[in-house]
Amino acid sequence: MSKVTVKDLDVKGKHVIVRVDFNVPHKGDTITDDNRIRAALPTINYLTENGAKVLLLSHLGKIKTDEDKAKNDMSIVAKRLAELTSAPVKFVNATRGAELEEAVKAQENGSIVLMQNTRYEKGETKNDPELGKYWASLGDAFVEDAFGSVHRAHASTVGIPSNMKEVAVGFLVEKELNVLGKALNDPQRPFVAILGGAKVSDKIGVIENLLKIADKVLIGGGMSYTFAAANGGKIGTSLLEADKEDLAKEFMEKGKGKLFLPVDTVIANDFDNPTDIKTVKAGEIPDGYMGLDIGPATVAEFQKELAGAKTVFWNGPMGVFEKPEFAKGTEEICKTLAELDGATTIIGGGDSASAAKNLGYADKFSHISTGGGASLEYMEGKELPGVAIIPEK
Ligand SMILES: Nc1ncnc2c1ncn2[C@@H]1O[C@H](COP(=O)(O)OP(=O)(O)O)[C@@H](O)[C@H]1O
Ligand SMILES: O=C(OP(=O)(O)O)[C@H](O)COP(=O)(O)O
């Protein structure tokens, strides 16, 4: 079974609304990573080259105050998009009303209108039925290509397609579903998952599901200390979610033989100003010290478990990789994955994707998802509302 795709639509001369994820990191007016804009280009260019009149919708940032609005003006994305595509791009500083409607009406075949930030509308994140219906009225067809946002049931991701007949996924969503879907439903084995990051509570669903599906689950990062504590280890002032210790115990019980935890850890006396850094065995952290990275013995152990893997899914750094003193574990794991022979290697967005990019290994991975939250929810086995709303062929 596969979803209706943009290729199944007759788009010539039609107004096609495309929900993209242009939620790009930016400092002031400068976009610091334009990957999400580039990732949407195959769909955008296909549509313009085939004579569609394209209306692009996206959110940018989280909008609570007027200051948030000013900081997340979509016009900065319009400028970058115009540099990346040969189709004409018109930015409309409105999310509804005459200016937007007239700009859409005046479109020539093969042109693009990019609307202001969808979250300038309060009804967007509430999936206000009136808003979804109104946006749907601006087009003849709808294409869902915002993979990073398909776990959100918002007016632009779910409201619009619920009000339209001609709906499809774009090439980016199609590719993400193919790669992640293969790992989840029919992985080449051995399938090894590496999970890190700060908190167990953010990763409960994914640990649970991957313990069922993967052959091995390797756990590092801040969340590994809750497991160490649950094992009766000493963890000093490391990150601890005491209310998740029982769950960690349950995971260790269920995952016997396939769940691997750090055997050593890099510790420091202070997070902000570490003056004493050393490596100790896991569960033997002295009082007043905190664990901030996996140690070299853990790297070696994880490398052993990764040897021969045919599918790898990685989400979450192994330590506080933003600080060079505690980045080694994440760097070594990233390098190991980049060098794995004949394996499908997938990064589930977020900080692990930034780490791979910063280290210059991005092109060594089979797939780096454009969605952090979305890829995690998918790997948890959850239904993604923005995908569910698009029919199967
Ligand atoms: N041992 C640790 N102690 C404190 N924070 C940690 C530790 N290991 C990793 N982190 C932090 O976890 C954060 C990333 O976690 P998370 O958001 O769950 O990952 P991702 O974005 O890849 O899903 C990073 O900011 C990193 O510094
Ligand atoms: O950046 C995003 O999510 P991600 O950081 O989980 O990849 C998406 O654009 C969704 O944004 P949101 O979490 O504000 O709804």
Architecture overview:
By secondary structure, the protein is of the alpha/beta class. It has two domains: about 5-170, Phosphoglycerate kinase, N-terminal domain (Rossmann fold, 3-Layer(aba) Sandwich); about 180-380, Phosphoglycerate kinase, N-terminal domain (Rossmann fold, 3-Layer(aba) Sandwich). It is built from 15 helices and 19 strands. It has helices spanning about 35-50, 65-70, 75-85, 100-105, 130-135, 155-160, 170-185, 205-215, 225-230, 245-255, 295-305, 330-340, 350-360, 370-380, 385-390, and strands at about 15-20, 25, 30, 55, 90, 110-115, 140-145, 165-170, 190-195, 215-220, 235, 260, 265-270, 275-280, 285, 290-295, 310-315, 345, 365-370. The strands form five sheets. It has a six-stranded parallel beta sheet with strand order 5-6-4-1-7-8, with helices on both faces. Strands 12-10-9-17-18-19 form a six-stranded parallel beta sheet, sandwiched between helices. A hairpin with a 2-residue loop joins β2 (about 25) and β3 (about 30). α5 packs across α6 (about 155-160), α9 packs across α10 and α11 runs parallel beside α12. The mean pLDDT is about 95. Bound molecules: adenosine-5'-diphosphate and 1,3-bisphosphoglyceric acid.
In short:
The chain contains 15 helices and 19 strands. The protein has 393 residues and is an alpha/beta fold.
Task: Map the helices and strands.
Blueprint: E1 15-19, E2 26-27, E3 30-31, H1 35-49, E4 53-57, H2 66-71, H3 75-84, E5 89-92, H4 98-105, E6 112-115, H5 129-136, E7 141-144, H6 155-162, E8 166-169, H7 171-185, E9 191-195, H8 204-213, E10 216-219, H9 224-230, E11 234-235, H10 245-254, E12 259-260, E13 264-268, E14 277-281, E15 284-285, E16 290-294, H11 296-306, E17 311-315, H12 328-338, E18 344-347, H13 350-358, E19 367-368, H14 372-379, H15 385-388
Parallel strand pairs: 1-4, 1-7, 4-6, 5-6, 7-8, 9-10, 9-17, 10-12, 11-15, 17-18, 18-19
Antiparallel strand pairs: 2-3, 13-14, 13-16
